[in-house]
Design goal:
The complex is a heterodimer. By secondary structure, chain A is mainly alpha-helical. Chain A contains 11 helices and 2 strands, in the order H-H-E-E-H-H-H-H-H-H-H-H-H. In chain A, helix 1 (2-42) crosses helix 11 (248-281). In chain B, the strands form 2 sheets. Chain B has a 6-stranded mixed beta sheet with strand order 6-7-8-3-9-10, with helices on both faces. A 4-stranded antiparallel beta sheet of chain B has the order 2-1-4-5, with helices on one face.
Amino acid sequence: MRKGKKRFEEKMFRYLSAGITLFIVFLLLHIIWSIASKGFAALSWQMITDEPKGGFYFGKEGGILNAIAGSFYLAVAATILSFAISLPVALFINVYLRKYPRRANAIRFFLDVLWGIPSIVYGAFAFTIMMFAGLRTSLIAGIITVAVMIAPIMIRAMDEVLKTIPIGLQEAAYALGATKTETAFHIFLRKALPAFATAILLAFGRGIGDAASVLFTTGFTDYVPSSIQEPAATLPLAIFFQLGSPVKEVQSRAYAAALLLTIIILVVSVLTRLLNRHTRQS
Amino acid sequence: MEQTTATLKGIIHPYEHYGEGLTQPIVEVKGLNVFSKNAQILKNIHLSVPKNKITVLLGPSGCGKTTLLKCLNRLTDLYSDLRLDGSIFIDNEDILNTPRDITEIRQKMGLLLQRPFPLPMSIAGNITYGLKLKGIRNKKILEAKVEKHLRDVALWDEVKDRLSHSANSLSIGQQQRLCLARGLAVEPEIILADEPTSALDPISSKVIEEEFIKLKNDYTIILVTHILRQAKRLADYVVFMYYGEIVEHGDAEEIFNNPKTALLKHYLESGY
């Protein structure tokens, strides 16, 4: 009797979990399929090489180079800036605070909370500061906002890597006469650097795909920005605005933009995995 | 037992146990107590370590040997819940109450842990790291030091063709010898070794032991071990610890052939 019940339980959970997994995978494939099928039609060489022509909402001419360039400038610069903020924090938690695990865990908790804050809040917060300072939307404002938004992700991802470094290595470095700072930058950083690639790409993927944080801060424009003080277009916002257009052709251009963004993120994710595997092997 | 240790505590004087062959102490521990959050790990430790000898800290696991060793170069700083009280004199300087930078003091001691922790650098880089911290940049000097210290630990012939390879490519026994060489490169006076052979195969263990015997001409070695036979092979001076206290200490011959306390007698017979 009991045996029968156990077997039933086992079977039910197996099918249930398999079913849900299949459902999720199907949903994902469906999203990719609908973006691809609608986007491919509108995707052309002109789309990636030209700025929009004839007004963004109604224009069917030109391309979305403004958004591609804007997104790349924004995400690359924000990732670099975020790395500069995140590295000291991650090293601080793991080298200086190793002695005080409670404080380290408190910081980790706050970072996790920050990770969970919706990006629109970062955007709105930055916008408030910009209004106070009398600044207009610009690429630099977006870079700073996105950098702050992805910093918790990068710090926690780096932290997970640094956490695995055994305390014996720290003792060995101390015993050779290294200070805490030398231990952090010579030993811990070098040990963890290959695995940091994952953290950086993870944050980059989040940064390039986010619309809400750049809505108020970077603004939107039909041109490729020529300085960081100008507003810039971004792919997520290009999708958002074009989908809102009443013109059918413009809507399908939104799918082309979405397809491009998906491809970029896919490439980044695959790269992350490959790097991950590579570092684990060596 | 209470009574034995109590009387022993009474008679132990830092200089009393210097026999004929033992020279000036290089490390002196006076009244050291170590507390963790809810226990006392070391109780009133008085100890003098003789120069150019192998001093073995012997005792069952959990008796505080490793903690005592780590107090000697203040690696205990890494653990927030440890509180130290007392004095440790190294070259007549109390390292627990010194205004001097602890990193300088740590360079007086090479450290060998239970398993090797090679720095994430090349084989040569592991040796030169400590020297570079001291500010030595001259390439010729660094190269000469790499060769000298790798020869010291009988590793030179095995790695001379791949000095720029990652230290992780070495076997664990080679890594441990590299860690010893790395410690020697900063020209310490003392070598602290915490069960350095416990992760090694018998052959690598033997090499390390042979190195220790050679090295004691130039260095003072403090070795933590729970392997009785290793202690008998290497020790000149033995400190027997039990539950955070030094129960008995003296010349190796005296300790092994003529144990005075019941605890030590039992330990020598049974091994725990």
